[in-house]
From TrEMBL, chain A:
Keyword annotations: Metal-binding, Oxidoreductase
Superkingdom assignment: Eukaryota
InterPro entries linked: Mn/Fe_SOD, Mn/Fe_SOD_BS, Mn/Fe_SOD_C, Mn/Fe_SOD_N, Mn/Fe_SOD_N_sf, SOD_C_sf
Protein family: Belongs to the iron/manganese superoxide dismutase family.
An annotated Gene Ontology molecular function: metal ion binding
EC nos: 1.15.1.1
Source organism per UniProt: Cyanidium caldarium
Pfam family, one: Sod_Fe_N
Protein name: superoxide dismutase
Manganese/iron superoxide dismutase C-terminal domain residues: 199-303
Keyword Oxidoreductase: yes
Manganese/iron superoxide dismutase N-terminal domain location: 104-186
TrEMBL record, chain B:
UniProt entry tagged with the keyword Oxidoreductase: yes
EC class of the enzyme, as a word: oxidoreductase
Pfam families according to UniProt: Sod_Fe_C, Sod_Fe_N
Source organism (scientific name): Cyanidium caldarium (Red alga)
Domain Manganese/iron superoxide dismutase N-terminal positions: 3-92
PANTHER family recorded: 37S RIBOSOMAL PROTEIN S26, MITOCHONDRIAL (PTHR43595), SMALL RIBOSOMAL SUBUNIT PROTEIN MS42 (PTHR43595:SF2)
UniProt name for this protein: Superoxide dismutase
The reaction(s) this protein catalyses: 2 superoxide + 2 H(+) = H2O2 + O2
Length: 309, 224
């Protein structure tokens, strides 16, 4: 059985996201129950014309085997760790024949999957140009040691003495984590219940408890997204201020800043840089924000929330 | 009296193919117009009343001393109105204005940067390197000495205490994504390179002249 990278990843059985534990981030590894590992590797598009293929191709100039090793050796990319554990160990044990680089994770769905809420052309640009650009620039700026410490390094920016490098890691590294998590948090509008697409389980309870009601949360988040001036993101995040019980918050973050930079855990984010909506919505950011609720992948977001220590 | 939306001295499509007509239309009638509406709204409010009647230039210069309750809205929307009003005057259809600096301005560029190309290179770097939304500027500083800087969001070099490098702007470029995304998408450097084709160097010369006399750019700021 072979499936395209897009189909394999849009089945909804895979989990996503970064997981915060004490001491920093570790990837959330979900091992799929069915299907051969080799076919899943093929399904990541290394020999097919899919977003995943574009991603592997973006790690340019690498042979297929090298690209495969690079993908499997990367500690962070949960999308790429949907392989049978022995394959991961084998690849990790193989000698690295190329310079260590963070790969560009593929989109978890076809470019047009979020239509009509987010248009395919925007998804192409957003992933293949904007995210790819952040990945490329971050790889260019960091040595192997720092790359292997990514994204934990985002919580330790003050440890980077050189101001210019610190700024680069903040901007490009923030761009990487924000977009990877964002793309993972979306799904076809048909997969949800339209306008009433909402979370369930522990996250729903926590939102209700913290914000009073689901509409109250939507209003606060949406209002922050519509009023953010310039470029930035709005995040629902969880604070972990030592000793205090963790608390959900909604906040606006300029440019590519991330809750990770404050030691907090991002749960659900919305990109309000103009590139995220301009081709379809023009200056009408409010329309984009209102429509976005329909494409949130709540099972994926809930898994992020529930994967905590 | 409140601020009104300025007209262009040329058609929306007159800067094609460098800047597309649709962008010019949306940029002015939606983005710029929103800054004006928000600015007027702030000046009508109780907290903004003190700035009512101030010139647009004064609003920008004095942003830091505005009441804290209106400071941000004046900074963002006063800045937005000033920046865009200036921006429209700094462009012209190809062939309708000087396409290169001359006279005193050219001398100043040559002596400061080593030539117009060298100045453009530095300007391009500032414009491409401004992360997120903002503007790149060619300014006159102390003693009229030219320098290049960039500001975030709708800040501008007139904003004392806010701008990292304050000065008198004589040339500015909008690098918010709305300024170029429809035609150039993520390719901001391509937009910057194209924009030089429509810079109105006669206007830049006028603003340099203003700056040489210690004045901010003298622009028509229509009221209604």
């Amino acid at each position: 059985m072979t499936t395209t990278g897009a189909n394999a990843l849009s089945s909804g059985t895979e989990s996503v996201g970064f997981v915060l534990s004490t001491g920093g981030l570790r990837p959330h590894l979900h091992v799929p129950r069915t299907g051969s590992a080799v076919h899943r590797l093929r399904g990541h598009g290394l020999d097919q014309d899919t977003p995943a293929s574009a991603a592997a191709v973006a790690s340019r100039g690498l042979s297929r085997r090298q690209a495969l090793q690079t993908l499997l050796a990367a500690p962070l990319w949960t999308l790429l760790s949907r392989v049978h554990p022995p394959i991961v160990r084998a690849a990790a044990a193989a000698p690295a024949s190329t310079q260590y680089q963070l790969p560009l994770p593929p989109l978890p769905y076809p470019y047009n999957a979020l239509e009509p809420v987010i248009d395919a052309k925007t998804m192409h640009l957003h992933h293949d140009k904007h995210l790819a650009g952040y990945v490329t620039k971050l790889n260019a700026a960091l040595d192997e040691q720092r790359l292997r410490n990514f994204p934990a390094i985002l919580g330790q920016l003050s440890n980077i003495g050189d101001a210019k490098l610190r700024s680069t890691v903040r901007n490009q590294g923030g761009g990487v984590v924000n977009h990877v998590q964002f793309f993972e948090s979306l799904r076809s509008p048909a997969a949800g219940s339209g306008a009433d697409n909402r979370p369930s389980g522990a996250l729903a309870q926590a939102i209700e408890q913290r914000f009073g009601s689901w509409p109250a949360f939507q209003e606060q988040f949406g209002s922050a997204a519509k009023s953010l001036f310039g470029s930035g993101w709005v995040w629902l995040y969880e604070t972990r201020r030592g000793g205090l019980q963790s608390q959900l918050e909604v906040g606006a973050f300029p440019n590519q800043d991330s809750p990770l930079m404050n030691g907090d855990r991002p749960i659900l984010g919305l990109d309000v840089w103009e590139h995220a909506y301009y081709l379809k919505y023009g200056p009408n950011r409010g329309e984009y924000v209102d429509a976005w609720w329909r494409v949130i992948n709540w099972p994926a977001v809930q898994r992020v929330y529930e994967s905590r220590k | 009296m409140s601020f009104a939306l300025p007209n262009l001295a040329y058609d929306d499509a007159a800067l094609e193919p460098y800047i597309d007509g649709t962008t010019m239309n949306i940029h002015r009638t939606k983005h710029h117009n929103t800054y004006i509406n928000n600015l007027n709204g702030a000046l009508q409010s109780a907290d903004g009343a003190g700035m009512k009647g101030s010139s647009l230039e004064a609003i920008c210069r004095n942003v830091q001393s505005a009441p804290s309750s209106v400071m941000t809205v004046l900074r963002n929307n006063g800045g937005g109105h000033f920046n865009h009003t200036m921006f429209w005057t700094l462009m012209a259809p190809v062939g309708s204005a000087s396409s290169a600096p001359s006279g005193a301005l050219k001398q100043a560029i040559d002596s400061t940067f080593g030539g117009v190309d060298a100045m453009k290179e530095q300007f391009n770097k500032a414009a491409a390197g401004r992360f997120g939304s903002g503007w790149a500027w060619l300014c006159a500083g102390d003693g009229g000495k030219l320098f290049i800087t960039s500001t975030p969001n709708q800040d501008n070099p007139l904003m004392a205490g806010v701008a990292e490098q304050p000065g008198l702007p004589i040339l500015g470029l909008d690098v918010w994504e709305h300024a170029y995304y429809l035609k150039y998408q993520n390719r901001r450097p391509e937009y910057i390179a194209a924009w030089w084709n429509v810079v109105n160097w006669d206007t830049v010369a006028k603003y340099y002249d203003d700056a040489s006399n210690g004045k901010a750019p003298t622009m028509n700021v229509p009221l209604q």
